[in-house]
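Please produce the structure of this protein holding uridine 5'-triphosphate.
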Amino acid sequence: MSELKRQVTKAIFPVAGLGTRFLPATKSVPKEIMTLVDRPLIQYAIDEARAAGITEFIFVTSRGKNALEDYFDHAPQLEDSLEKSGKHELLESLKSTNMESGAIAYIRQHKPMGLGHAVWCARRLIGDEPFAVILPDDVISAEKPCLQQMVEAYQETGGSMVATMQVPKEKASSYGILDVESEIGSLVSVRGMVEKPKVADAPSNLAVIGRYILTPDVLETLNRQKSGAGGEIQLTDAIAEEMDAKRKVYALKFEGQRFDCGSKAGFLQATVSFALAREELQDEFAAYLRDISPLIRAA
Ligand code: UTP
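Below is the modeled complex.
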């Protein structure tokens, strides 16, 4: 594959899921608009994608996600008002969320038929080039953003690449799990992948988490619309077929901490961690946590 072909400029953000674990909030608020401190989950995902060189952002949405589309509209009145009242820092933070006109596309997934299906819905906008997939409810705090780490590794390897991290064996049935061929440093050469295996059948403790760089071959496989675990069309299954076709798949053990913001516990952990990392909040918030720590021990 030529160097040019290895440039990844498009990313798919599948956000068409029902978000049932956050009901009743998700009756009217898309999960991706829920905020860690003061930025919605989707903003963290966009910032990570931009840092990795992504210039085209494709959202796979569904009914009830209008707030997500509105979030990316510019807000000239608000900008004017902040300008007039001299609130320059807020103005800069608002402007940093502005997206270039034409950089975002929205595609509907008409039925939540699984992550693989959601990615397939964007096939016409991807065409014949490698692309990234970012699940905004996996938030990763890292010095070098996770997708950037992957893009750099991918420029060396080609093939398809997933982000991976170790999980306790008993949690294997919540993830796609890697069957490892070999490992060199943080790069894993993958032999197979199983979506949500029984604990006893898990081939390793390395789980796939929500960052991918995929070749267009994966979209071809998804064309067959084969359903897998839970009756859904699984992205993991389509990537596993890459290996069956003798195409290389790698996994990167990224540097950083991943928060599962699709679950309540993960979302709360991320909130605490991101709040403690914010200069303007950390003293007051850390003091509060220290105050309540006896309560935590008693709970
Ligand atoms: P989840 O498995 O977290 O599902 O999807 P969910 O619907 O968002 O949340 P719960 O489990 O009901 O609480 C992982 C990612 O895949 C997207 C979701 O939007 C989320 O970003 N997804 C999932 C789709 O876009 N379409 C689907 O059919 C399924």
